[in-house]
């Protein structure tokens, strides 16, 4: 519902401002399954879903397990004229570690492994206590703020497209083997995308706030 | 419905003398520093924040130059070493007949970064000068820029995977070149530039703020 004039402003608790265009709305309860979008910029405001929290936690847990598999199983294998070379996920992260490109190693480790894991961890920390019906843990708001800030810096999906491009590049020159870690990583990307689709930032903030006060 | 075909007139938090939190949507009085729902810093839409956008954009543009001049990949086959730049790599791929991959690399590492620079410059300039053009188009453009920024990192990942995979000693080996560092920096800087852009300014620039328009 739009707010029409500054004269009739209600209590601040009853208002909500669109995070992407600042339009003011009167807050109303949105039923699970409904989606509230901004009338002006069409950004999604709230999208509560039944059992969304449990689903997000399960998906984040699955993502952490898949990341573990992706790190410890063989990733890719190259064979030319009887000579093998194996590369694990950590080998690709360490690819820049010699010479002047060494600082990129830290960036690679962060973008591909550490930041995605941090995000999953922070999301579980924020939502797990609430999904089981309790109050949020201390600093849950900092954890969730961090998870949101890291959203564009956790680049697992970009990495997997990079792998695909690299594979096609060398496919003509050598025989390639794809290890279980590759499929684990593909699974991780799918799970991450599903999880992010379930998450509605404003809904989580509202729930967090309400549960903290109760 | 006297304004059919135009964006509906909307009262913004700013025009109502309040501040909205960009993280969680909570509305505050203008003297509040931190949001009491999510703890984020609450700021009104402020045109001077564009300076940060310009600074990061400039940094991104500067490091994009060495990214194109210096070699991205160093390939040694049977003792012969060849360096290839980003553009050189695309040309090589075309010569080998891999048009699809050439197109992906060309789009991800040349077209997207350049288009992103142009798009951010366009958005920042039109918002700064309060140019009245379709806000919806600019909002769409901003969303595209914000979404697509991270995908330029593909090229850095490709270099990492190739150099960890193709290590067959004398027969063939691929090593990363110094351009990978400046390219990664350029992508990161433009991402920060796009993130520091306050999308609320796009709507304010059009004078859609309640009293005029």
From TrEMBL, chain A:
InterPro entries xrefs: PqiA-like
Q: Which UniProt keywords apply?
A: Membrane, Transmembrane, Transmembrane helix
- Give the residue spans that cross the bilayer: 56-76, 149-168, 174-194
Q: Name one Pfam family in it.
A: PqiA
Top-level taxon of the source organism: Bacteria
Q: What is this protein called?
A: Paraquat-inducible protein A
Q: What is the lineage of its organism?
A: Bacteria, Pseudomonadati, Pseudomonadota, Alphaproteobacteria, Rhodobacterales
UniProtKB/TrEMBL annotation, chain B:
Q: Which Pfam families match?
A: PqiA
Q: Is this entry keyworded Transmembrane?
A: yes
- Report the transmembrane regions from the record: 53-73, 99-127, 148-168, 174-194
- Provide the primary localization: membrane
Localization recorded for this chain is:
Cell inner membrane
Give the CC-aspect GO terms.
Answer: plasma membrane
Q: Does the keyword Methyltransferase apply?
A: no
Keyword annotations for this protein, in alphabetical order, are:
Cell inner membrane, Cell membrane, Membrane, Transmembrane, Transmembrane helix
Please report the name of this protein according to its UniProt entry.
Paraquat-inducible protein A
Name the species this protein comes from: Salipiger aestuarii
């Amino acid at each position: 519902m739009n707010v029409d004039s500054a004269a009739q402003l209600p209590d601040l608790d009853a208002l909500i401002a669109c995070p992407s265009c600042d339009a003011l709305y009167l807050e109303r309860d949105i039923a699970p399954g409904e989606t509230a979008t901004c009338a002006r910029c069409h950004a999604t405001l709230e999208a509560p879903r039944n059992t969304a929290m449990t689903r997000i936690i399960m998906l984040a847990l699955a993502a952490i397990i898949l990341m573990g598999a992706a790190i410890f199983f063989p990733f890719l294998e190259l064979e030319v004229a009887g000579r093998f070379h194996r590369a694990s996920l950590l080998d690709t992260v360490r690819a820049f570690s010699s010479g002047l490109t060494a600082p990129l190693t830290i960036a690679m480790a962060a973008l591909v492994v550490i930041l995605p894991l941090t995000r999953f961890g922070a999301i579980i920390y924020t939502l797990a206590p609430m999904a089981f019906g309790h109050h949020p843990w201390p600093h849950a708001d900092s954890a969730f703020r961090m998870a949101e800030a890291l959203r564009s810096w956790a680049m697992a999906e970009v990495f997997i497209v990079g792998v695909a491009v690299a594979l096609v590049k060398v496919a003509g020159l050598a025989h390639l083997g794809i290890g279980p870690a590759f499929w684990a990583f593909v699974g991780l990307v799918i799970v991450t995308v599903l999880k992010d689709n379930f998450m509605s930032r404003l809904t989580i903030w509202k729930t967090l706030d309400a549960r903290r006060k109760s | 419905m006297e304004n059919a075909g135009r964006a509906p007139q909307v009262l913004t938090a700013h025009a109502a003398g309040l501040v909205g939190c960009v993280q969680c949507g909570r509305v505050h009085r203008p003297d509040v520093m931190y949001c009491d729902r999510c703890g984020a810093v609450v700021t009104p839409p402020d045109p001077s924040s564009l300076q940060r956008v310009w600074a990061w954009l400039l940094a991104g543009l500067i490091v994009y130059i060495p990214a194109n001049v210096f070699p991205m990949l160093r390939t040694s086959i049977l003792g012969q070493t060849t360096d290839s730049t980003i553009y050189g790599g695309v040309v090589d791929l075309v010569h080998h007949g891999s048009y699809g991959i050439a197109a992906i690399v060309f789009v991800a590492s040349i077209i997207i970064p350049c288009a992103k620079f142009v798009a951010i410059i366009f958005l920042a300039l039109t918002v700064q000068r309060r140019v009245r053009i379709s806000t919806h188009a600019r909002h769409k453009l901003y969303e595209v820029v914000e979404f697509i920024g991270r995908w330029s990192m593909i090229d850095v990942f490709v270099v990492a995977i190739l150099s960890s995979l193709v290590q067959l000693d004398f027969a063939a080996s691929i090593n990363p070149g110094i351009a990978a560092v400046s390219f990664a920096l350029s992508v990161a800087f433009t991402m920060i530039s796009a993130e520091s852009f306050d999308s609320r300014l796009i709507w304010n620039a059009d004078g859609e703020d309640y009293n005029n328009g």
